[in-house]
Design a protein that fits this description.
Blueprint: E1 3-12, E2 15-24, E3 35-41, E4 48-51, H1 53-61, E5 65-66, H2 68-79, H3 91-102, H4 111-155
Length: about 160
């Protein structure tokens, strides 16, 4: 039996990904595999290549023949020229960076909301003084009435 290390195509139309498999050379391309030893996603940037090199070396020692595509992948993985993808930054970190770039506060509100919160104690103090002023105005007409009563008595 001629054993091959080859790619098994999976995925959707125009969005392929492959599994690196050990198969009998007479089986269909996407048929039943003896063993799956890795995966290959060519559409990602950089391409994702994960191959269990221990199992690949085992099968190569048993006489399995890699296809041209798999031989190239094995050379990339074994040779150490594999590019790795940078780790993704968390969405929260991206959000906070965008907020700081826009000059907004981290509490989810804009600078205006922060200013309103800062002005709130001033507004409360002004409201507290306003009733005192109203009481003084209320006392003032009473005083005016008292003076008008005194003048009315004096005239009489």
């Amino acid at each position: 039996m001629a054993v091959k290390i080859r790619l098994k195509r999976m995925g959707k139309i125009r969005a392929p990904f492959y599994r690196v498999v050990i198969m009998d050379s007479r089986t269909k391309r996407d048929g039943r595999a003896i063993e799956e030893i890795g995966k290959y996603h060519p559409t990602e940037e950089p391409s994702l290549i994960e191959i269990d090199m221990e199992r690949a070396h085992y099968w190569l020692a048993q006489g399995a023949q890699p296809t041209e595509a798999v031989a190239a992948l094995l050379k990339v993985v074994d040779g150490g020229t594999l590019k790795t993808k940078e780790p993704k930054t968390a969405k929260k970190d991206l959000y906070e960076a965008a907020l700081s770039a826009a000059g907004k506060s981290d509490d989810g509100g804009s600078r205006k909301k922060a200013e309103k919160k800062a002005d709130a104690p001033k507004a409360d103090a002004a409201k507290a003084e306003a009733p005192k002023a109203d009481e003084a105005k209320a006392d003032a007409p009473a005083a005016d009435e008292a003076t008008s009563d005194d003048t009315a008595k004096a005239e009489a």
